[in-house]
Amino acid sequence: MDREISDIYETNNYDMFTLLETNRKISKNQKLEHSILKKGILRPIAVNSKMQIIDGQHRYSIAKKHKLTLPYYVTMNKEMNDIIEINNTVHKWTLNDYINKYVTDGNIEYIKLKKLMETHRKISNADMVSAAMGSWYKQSKLLNNVKNGSFKFYNFDEFLVIVQGYEELLRNTQIKEMRSVFQAYFKISSIDKFNQSWFIKKINETEVNRKIIGLKKTERILKCFLEAYNSNLQAVSKRRNAIDWELDLKHRVIIKDKLKTERLNSLL
Predict the structure, then answer these.
(1) Of 76, 78, 145, 194, which has the fewest CB atoms closer than 10 Å, so is most exposed?
(2) Which residues is 255 bridged to in the sheet?
(3) How many whole angstroms separate alpha carbon 247 and alpha carbon 96?
(4) What is the mean pLDDT of residues 98-115?
(5) With b meaning 16 or more CB within 10 Å and e meaning fewer, what string describes 192-210?
């Protein structure tokens, strides 16, 4: 029999609760589990009028696992945005939490994004999202678009080519996986005349993997990529294949050649 403590209840009937599919997935939290086993559940879980857990699913799963008395309270008419806000006051949602939420909602763009993340793990989630939307500029704004449900690929098929090209680069050279390497590759492959086979060949010939050891800035790695790409293209007959670029006064790479229009984004 449940007993009431003000507006908080206690129960050992775990079957009366259900989990919301749109809430973030339950993951192992050993620190929380050890704390609960030592001190008990100090904060009740929150459920809606349908007894769906909107905050505290980890506490619920631990209580059920160890057959502990579970405190709870009912909060009425909570929407998904309220659930996110409640969770964020305790533990901020990760990028994956938001993506999983919209995948559960059936959003096609998020379903495709999640599949890419699962099959191409050499690219960080934040970089995958930013590049998929066409830019690293204003990255915080791009990530907010993911959180509010407005994520959209600038061109899914074109982006898939980038991801596959990057992994081909890693497979066929001694270049090591790194965030700035992916960003540099994204930028050089955005050039209209970029040739993947030639690029990989020149990367190996000029031993770029040695030159970028210790480099962390995207601009410096991009410079090495461009220098390698243009090596041995001084002859007039080959010059048309070279990429036209220069450094500005702040040593930033300026691409003077035409960029692929399908990869240009209004945020650039």
Answers:
(1) 76
(2) 245
(3) 37
(4) 89
(5) eebeeeebbebbeebebee
- Retrieve residue 130's tokens: 């930013």
Segment 204-241, tens digit of pLDDT? 999 999 999 999 999 999 999 999 999 987 665 567 78
- Read off the DSSP letter of residue 191: B
Q: 162, 122 in Cβ contact below 8 A?
A: no
Bridging pattern class, strands 70-74 and 245-247: unpaired
Q: How far apart are CA 20 and CA 13, in angstroms?
A: 18
Q: Are 191 and 260 in contact (CB under 8 A)?
A: yes
Q: Which amino acid is at 88?
A: N
124 in helix, strand or coil? coil
The 3-state DSSP class for residue 117 equals helix
E strand map for 78-161: none
What's the pLDDT score for residue 137? 65
Indicate the DSSP class of residue 257.
S
Tokens 């050993």 identify what position?
A: 30
Asked if pLDDT for residue 6 goes beyond 50, the answer is: no
- The Cα–Cα gap between 43 and 257 comes to 59
Q: Give me the count of residues in the chain.
A: 268
